[in-house]
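1st attempt posting a full record on here, be nice pls
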Amino acid sequence: MSEALTTTQWKPKASIAMITGAVMLATIVEVLNTSIANVALKTIAGAFSVSNDESLWIVTLFLIASSILLPATEWCSSVFGRKKFFLFCIALFGISAFLCGIAPNYQALLFARILQGLGGGCLVPLSQAILLETWPKEDHGKAMAIFGLGIMVAPILGPIIGGWLTTNCSWNWVFFISVPLCMLAFAMVAVSIEDPPYARARGWQKLDFTGFILLVIWISTFQVMIDNGQKNGWFGSDYICKLGTISLIAFILLLWRELTCKNPLLDLKIFKNWNFAWGTAVITVTFAIAYGSIAILPMFLQSLLGYNAYLSGLAAGPMGVGSLIGVLLTGALAKTVDLRKQVALGIVAIAIGSYMFSNLNLSIALLNVILPNIVLGFGMSTVVTPATTLIYSSVLNSEMTNASSLQNLVKNVGCAVGTSSVGVLVSMYSQVHQNYLVGKMNMLNTVFADRFNDMVDAFRLLGDSAVVAQTKANAMLYKQLIQQSTLSAYMSSYKVYAVVILLILPFVFVIKRVRYDKQSKDDN
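the predicted structure (as tokens):
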């Protein structure tokens, strides 16, 4: 039976609203956990008497485990049936979250986080595939607007919720909060979701074991390299060089294996789909910038303005307001305005928001943080929602699970690169600006000389000797030098983000136009 006939005849029994609510709850729980534990790392490190660097493995192992099982989503769904596999993932995620909360030692916590990552990694692609299959083709814009709101707002809410729970309860509740949500999601999925004919269990399928091993090696080494590159001096470190070499070799071998294998783990032929390939590239860069922006703001607020973890997370909250505005706008315009123009509008908004952040200083008011956040949130959701619709506009329903898995895998790699870029850019530009400012700090510079002499006079009036006064003045000026060079580094990083996002603007219009009308649902 052809897919067209099967799709026409088969309809889910539950309502679209019920199905959407079930899969979106599962998605939000998983995405929330990518960031909710970040603000609790120092507290957890203290509780288990480990270093701050060691506590980073709580995040790293979760991300590795999440990415590893992504490409196997299609295989697992075909073996067990998509609904059963979906329910298994939700159950594993909830149980492992509970195990994280009651972990008696650090090793048990890391093991539970790996299980949690394995359970959560497939939830997003499965949810996305089910949404796209359930909603009519002409309403994919609305479906992706709802989906985009979840995946954009959840990472923003994560640090806020995590910070509040850590401060007012304990770090354990950062994990416990997922348990009731998973129970509710499990019940909703069990009642509302059913497998279409092409997603039902087909029994044991041959697994590309070699490809899976290469995938595990590539993802593991790449993620560890990205997470530890900055503190080890990147490729000035033998450790990072070895990880990079292994990751590159594994990646090349993985591509060769999947392109030549008869039953590949990753069906890379989907990248022959023009809109899927170019749309995935655009959305990956957007998510890299998004996660970089989400990571850089708390660092700026904590290191230079003295915010604590909760307040710095709360400061990013307005980004969710902007995301909601963008989702509502793109959902309303999905059928009337060219989706590519909507993506272009979002890219311009991200660039404007990043530029607004690049003009901040140490005397800013709260409004100066709120407005750029709203603009950034609006831009990101305005890119993600229509871009996702473009990506899947010509993907067959039978290919949806595989396509969603691959797209999310590539997107995860972009998020990892975007997050790590924060440390790289801030460190690099701090050195650049520091070297520039040091050259201005000499007595031949009349501005510096007047400032130095004023400080010396002020300390002398407080009773210090000339030598002590000069020493204190030098120390204070050096502290201001470090502070200003760090501030300039953050501002330069935002300028880089603005330039990078604008560079992908021309590629948006390389994507084929999608239009739904009475004659044709898909006019390229």
